[in-house]
Protein backbone atom coordinates (compact mmCIF):
# COMPACT_ATOMS: atom_id res chain seq x y z
CA UNK A 1 0.00 0.00 0.00
CA UNK A 2 1.40 3.38 -0.93
CA UNK A 3 1.83 6.23 1.57
CA UNK A 4 -1.08 7.98 -0.17
CA UNK A 5 -3.33 5.21 1.13
CA UNK A 6 -2.61 6.16 4.74
CA UNK A 7 -4.49 8.73 6.78
CA UNK A 8 -2.65 10.73 9.41
CA UNK A 9 -4.24 10.19 12.79
CA UNK A 10 -3.00 10.70 16.31
CA UNK A 11 -3.24 7.92 18.86
CA UNK A 12 -5.85 8.43 21.53
CA UNK A 13 -4.63 10.04 24.73
CA UNK A 14 -7.23 8.06 26.67
CA UNK A 15 -5.42 6.85 29.79
CA UNK A 16 -7.13 3.45 29.82
CA UNK A 17 -5.99 2.84 26.24
CA UNK A 18 -2.46 3.77 27.19
CA UNK A 19 -2.61 1.26 30.06
CA UNK A 20 -3.87 -1.41 27.66
CA UNK A 21 -1.09 -0.69 25.16
CA UNK A 22 1.52 -0.78 27.93
CA UNK A 23 0.18 -4.04 29.36
CA UNK A 24 0.29 -5.79 26.01
CA UNK A 25 3.70 -4.33 25.25
CA UNK A 26 5.07 -5.90 28.42
CA UNK A 27 3.72 -9.30 27.39
CA UNK A 28 5.55 -9.62 24.06
CA UNK A 29 7.95 -12.34 25.21
CA UNK A 30 5.35 -14.54 26.91
CA UNK A 31 2.35 -13.92 24.65
CA UNK A 32 2.72 -16.66 22.03
CA UNK A 33 3.20 -19.51 24.51
CA UNK A 34 0.14 -18.45 26.53
CA UNK A 35 -2.23 -17.56 23.66
CA UNK A 36 -4.51 -20.63 23.76
CA UNK A 37 -7.69 -18.57 23.69
CA UNK A 38 -6.36 -16.38 20.89
CA UNK A 39 -5.48 -19.38 18.71
CA UNK A 40 -8.92 -20.90 19.16
CA UNK A 41 -10.64 -17.62 18.27
CA UNK A 42 -8.35 -17.26 15.24
CA UNK A 43 -9.53 -20.63 13.93
CA UNK A 44 -13.14 -19.49 14.35
CA UNK A 45 -12.35 -16.45 12.21
CA UNK A 46 -10.63 -18.44 9.48
CA UNK A 47 -13.64 -20.73 9.22
CA UNK A 48 -15.71 -17.64 8.36
CA UNK A 49 -13.17 -16.22 5.88
CA UNK A 50 -12.85 -17.90 2.51
CA UNK A 51 -9.45 -16.69 1.18
CA UNK A 52 -10.09 -17.66 -2.44
CA UNK A 53 -9.17 -16.24 -4.82
CA UNK A 54 -7.33 -13.70 -2.65
CA UNK A 55 -7.71 -11.49 0.40
CA UNK A 56 -6.45 -8.55 -1.69
CA UNK A 57 -5.33 -5.65 0.48
CA UNK A 58 -5.66 -7.22 3.94
CA UNK A 59 -5.46 -5.60 7.37
CA UNK A 60 -4.61 -7.45 10.57
CA UNK A 61 -6.15 -5.08 13.10
CA UNK A 62 -4.64 -5.70 16.52
CA UNK A 63 -1.91 -7.88 15.04
CA UNK A 64 -0.21 -8.40 18.42
CA UNK A 65 2.90 -10.52 18.05
CA UNK A 66 1.88 -11.46 14.51
CA UNK A 67 0.54 -14.94 15.22
CA UNK A 68 -1.70 -14.89 12.12
CA UNK A 69 0.40 -12.73 9.83
CA UNK A 70 2.06 -15.56 7.91
CA UNK A 71 -1.32 -17.11 7.12
CA UNK A 72 -2.70 -13.77 5.99
CA UNK A 73 0.38 -13.11 3.87
CA UNK A 74 -0.05 -16.44 2.07
CA UNK A 75 -3.49 -15.37 0.87
CA UNK A 76 -3.16 -11.61 0.38
CA UNK A 77 -1.63 -9.26 -2.18
CA UNK A 78 -0.71 -6.65 0.45
CA UNK A 79 -0.74 -6.89 4.24
CA UNK A 80 -1.11 -4.03 6.71
CA UNK A 81 -0.43 -4.83 10.37
CA UNK A 82 -1.93 -2.40 12.90
CA UNK A 83 -1.65 -2.43 16.67
CA UNK A 84 -2.20 0.08 19.46
CA UNK A 85 0.88 -1.18 21.30
CA UNK A 86 4.21 -0.01 19.93
CA UNK A 87 5.92 -2.84 21.82
CA UNK A 88 3.75 -5.49 20.18
CA UNK A 89 4.23 -3.92 16.76
CA UNK A 90 8.03 -3.84 17.07
CA UNK A 91 8.10 -7.45 18.25
CA UNK A 92 5.93 -8.61 15.36
CA UNK A 93 8.07 -6.70 12.89
CA UNK A 94 11.19 -8.45 14.19
CA UNK A 95 9.46 -11.82 13.88
CA UNK A 96 8.26 -11.13 10.34
CA UNK A 97 10.81 -8.85 8.62
CA UNK A 98 8.90 -8.84 5.34
CA UNK A 99 9.05 -5.73 3.16
CA UNK A 100 5.62 -6.57 1.72
CA UNK A 101 3.99 -5.84 5.10
CA UNK A 102 3.19 -2.28 6.16
CA UNK A 103 3.42 -1.69 9.92
CA UNK A 104 1.25 0.98 11.51
CA UNK A 105 0.64 1.95 15.12
CA UNK A 106 -3.02 2.87 15.32
CA UNK A 107 -6.29 2.96 17.20
CA UNK A 108 -9.26 0.92 15.95
CA UNK A 109 -11.53 3.88 16.67
CA UNK A 110 -9.49 6.12 14.37
CA UNK A 111 -7.81 3.91 11.79
CA UNK A 112 -4.74 5.36 10.03
CA UNK A 113 -6.15 4.42 6.59
CA UNK A 114 -7.98 6.29 3.86
CA UNK A 115 -11.55 5.53 2.88
CA UNK A 116 -12.32 2.44 0.80
CA UNK A 117 -8.75 1.12 0.60
CA UNK A 118 -9.11 -2.34 2.22
CA UNK A 119 -10.45 -5.57 0.71
CA UNK A 120 -10.27 -7.73 3.84
CA UNK A 121 -10.05 -6.78 7.51
CA UNK A 122 -9.15 -9.42 10.09
CA UNK A 123 -9.23 -8.67 13.81
CA UNK A 124 -8.83 -11.30 16.51
CA UNK A 125 -9.84 -10.57 20.13
CA UNK A 126 -9.00 -6.89 20.01
CA UNK A 127 -12.19 -4.84 19.78
CA UNK A 128 -13.29 -5.73 23.32
CA UNK A 129 -10.62 -3.21 24.37
CA UNK A 130 -12.30 -0.42 22.40
CA UNK A 131 -13.96 2.32 24.41
CA UNK A 132 -16.62 2.75 21.70
CA UNK A 133 -17.34 -0.37 19.63
CA UNK A 134 -19.87 1.51 17.51
CA UNK A 135 -17.13 3.93 16.43
CA UNK A 136 -14.76 1.04 15.67
CA UNK A 137 -17.43 -0.53 13.46
CA UNK A 138 -17.91 2.77 11.64
CA UNK A 139 -14.17 2.91 11.03
CA UNK A 140 -14.16 -0.64 9.66
CA UNK A 141 -16.97 0.29 7.29
CA UNK A 142 -15.15 3.45 6.22
CA UNK A 143 -11.88 1.75 5.25
CA UNK A 144 -13.45 -1.24 3.48
CA UNK A 145 -13.92 -1.08 -0.26
CA UNK A 146 -17.45 -1.65 -1.57
CA UNK A 147 -17.88 -5.41 -1.37
CA UNK A 148 -15.02 -5.62 1.12
CA UNK A 149 -15.38 -7.91 4.10
CA UNK A 150 -14.31 -8.11 7.71
CA UNK A 151 -14.18 -10.91 10.26
CA UNK A 152 -13.82 -9.76 13.84
CA UNK A 153 -13.77 -11.69 17.11
CA UNK A 154 -14.43 -10.25 20.53
CA UNK A 155 -15.20 -11.42 24.05
CA UNK A 156 -18.81 -11.25 25.17
CA UNK A 157 -20.45 -10.88 28.55
CA UNK A 158 -20.20 -14.14 30.45
CA UNK A 159 -16.51 -14.51 29.70
CA UNK A 160 -14.50 -15.32 32.86
CA UNK A 161 -17.75 -15.52 34.81
CA UNK A 162 -16.21 -17.94 37.33
CA UNK A 163 -13.34 -15.55 38.03
CA UNK A 164 -15.69 -12.59 38.34
CA UNK A 165 -17.87 -14.43 40.86
CA UNK A 166 -14.86 -15.61 42.86
CA UNK A 167 -13.63 -12.02 43.20
CA UNK A 168 -16.96 -11.07 44.77
CA UNK A 169 -15.82 -13.08 47.79
CA UNK A 170 -12.99 -10.55 48.18
CA UNK A 171 -14.29 -7.03 47.47
CA UNK A 172 -16.59 -4.90 45.32
CA UNK A 173 -13.93 -3.68 42.90
CA UNK A 174 -13.91 -4.76 39.27
CA UNK A 175 -11.31 -7.43 38.52
CA UNK A 176 -12.80 -8.66 35.24
CA UNK A 177 -13.74 -6.23 32.49
CA UNK A 178 -17.44 -5.77 31.74
CA UNK A 179 -17.71 -7.18 28.22
CA UNK A 180 -20.63 -6.25 25.99
CA UNK A 181 -23.50 -8.70 25.67
CA UNK A 182 -24.29 -10.49 22.41
CA UNK A 183 -27.67 -8.72 22.39
CA UNK A 184 -26.03 -5.30 22.69
CA UNK A 185 -23.60 -5.98 19.84
CA UNK A 186 -26.41 -7.34 17.66
CA UNK A 187 -28.31 -4.09 18.23
CA UNK A 188 -25.22 -2.08 17.29
CA UNK A 189 -24.81 -4.07 14.08
CA UNK A 190 -28.37 -3.17 13.09
CA UNK A 191 -27.43 0.53 13.14
CA UNK A 192 -24.46 0.00 10.80
CA UNK A 193 -24.57 0.14 6.99
CA UNK A 194 -22.99 -3.23 6.24
CA UNK A 195 -24.82 -5.24 3.59
CA UNK A 196 -24.05 -8.36 5.63
CA UNK A 197 -23.67 -8.08 9.38
CA UNK A 198 -24.08 -11.09 11.63
CA UNK A 199 -22.84 -12.31 14.99
CA UNK A 200 -22.25 -15.90 15.99
CA UNK A 201 -21.29 -17.03 19.49
CA UNK A 202 -18.57 -19.61 20.06
CA UNK A 203 -18.31 -20.82 23.69
CA UNK A 204 -14.99 -22.14 24.98
CA UNK A 205 -13.92 -23.53 28.34
CA UNK A 206 -10.24 -23.75 29.23
CA UNK A 207 -9.12 -25.80 32.22
CA UNK A 208 -6.44 -25.20 34.85
CA UNK A 209 -5.09 -27.17 37.78
CA UNK A 210 -4.75 -24.04 39.91
CA UNK A 211 -6.21 -20.57 39.81
CA UNK A 212 -2.70 -19.10 39.67
CA UNK A 213 -2.25 -20.80 36.28
CA UNK A 214 -5.24 -18.86 34.91
CA UNK A 215 -4.13 -15.51 36.35
CA UNK A 216 -0.59 -16.13 35.09
CA UNK A 217 -1.92 -16.87 31.61
CA UNK A 218 -3.97 -13.67 31.55
CA UNK A 219 -0.91 -11.68 32.55
CA UNK A 220 1.26 -13.48 30.00
CA UNK A 221 -0.95 -12.26 27.13
CA UNK A 222 -1.34 -8.77 28.59
CA UNK A 223 -5.07 -9.25 29.25
CA UNK A 224 -4.93 -8.63 33.00
CA UNK A 225 -5.55 -4.88 32.72
CA UNK A 226 -8.88 -3.64 34.11
CA UNK A 227 -10.12 -0.41 32.57
CA UNK A 228 -12.40 0.91 35.33
CA UNK A 229 -13.08 0.73 39.09
CA UNK A 230 -9.79 -1.07 39.60
CA UNK A 231 -8.53 -1.91 43.08
CA UNK A 232 -5.37 0.07 43.89
CA UNK A 233 -4.14 -1.47 47.16
CA UNK A 234 -2.45 -4.91 47.14
CA UNK A 235 -4.20 -8.07 48.24
CA UNK A 236 -3.68 -9.39 51.74
CA UNK A 237 -3.12 -13.08 52.46
CA UNK A 238 -6.72 -13.25 53.64
CA UNK A 239 -7.91 -11.72 50.33
CA UNK A 240 -5.97 -14.33 48.38
CA UNK A 241 -7.44 -17.14 50.46
CA UNK A 242 -10.95 -15.77 49.92
CA UNK A 243 -10.34 -15.64 46.17
CA UNK A 244 -9.08 -19.22 46.05
CA UNK A 245 -11.98 -20.43 48.18
CA UNK A 246 -14.43 -18.49 46.00
CA UNK A 247 -13.24 -20.33 42.88
CA UNK A 248 -13.23 -23.83 44.38
CA UNK A 249 -17.00 -24.49 43.93
CA UNK A 250 -16.39 -24.43 40.15
CA UNK A 251 -13.82 -27.25 40.25
CA UNK A 252 -14.76 -29.98 37.79
CA UNK A 253 -14.99 -33.73 38.26
CA UNK A 254 -11.54 -34.08 36.62
CA UNK A 255 -10.16 -31.86 39.42
CA UNK A 256 -9.54 -28.94 37.01
CA UNK A 257 -10.75 -25.37 37.37
CA UNK A 258 -12.71 -24.04 34.37
CA UNK A 259 -12.49 -20.60 32.76
CA UNK A 260 -15.42 -20.01 30.46
CA UNK A 261 -15.25 -17.66 27.49
CA UNK A 262 -18.00 -16.46 25.19
CA UNK A 263 -16.40 -15.54 21.86
CA UNK A 264 -18.39 -13.39 19.48
CA UNK A 265 -17.50 -13.67 15.79
CA UNK A 266 -18.69 -10.77 13.63
CA UNK A 267 -18.99 -11.31 9.88
CA UNK A 268 -19.28 -8.00 8.02
CA UNK A 269 -19.46 -7.02 4.37
CA UNK A 270 -19.70 -3.54 2.99
Automatic annotation (TrEMBL):
Please report the organism this UniProt entry assigns to the protein: Corallincola luteus
Extract the GO molecular function terms from the UniProt entry: malonyl-CoA methyltransferase activity
| UniProt key word Lipid biosynthesis | no
Q: Where is the Methyltransferase type domain?
A: 59-151
What family is this?
A: Belongs to the methyltransferase superfamily.
A biological process from GO: methylation
Keyword annotations for this protein?
Biotin biosynthesis, Methyltransferase, S-adenosyl-L-methionine, Transferase
Q: What is this protein called?
A: Malonyl-[acyl-carrier protein] O-methyltransferase
Signal sequence segment: none
Q: What is its EC number?
A: 2.1.1.197
Amino acid sequence: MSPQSQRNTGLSSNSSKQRIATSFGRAVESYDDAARLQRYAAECLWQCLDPSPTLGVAVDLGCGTGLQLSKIQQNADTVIAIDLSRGMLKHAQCQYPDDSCLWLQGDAESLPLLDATVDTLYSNLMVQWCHDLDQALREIYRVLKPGGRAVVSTLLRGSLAELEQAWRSVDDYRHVNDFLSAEHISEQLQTQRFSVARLQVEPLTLEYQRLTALTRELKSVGANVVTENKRKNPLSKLDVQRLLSGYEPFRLSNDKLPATYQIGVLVLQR
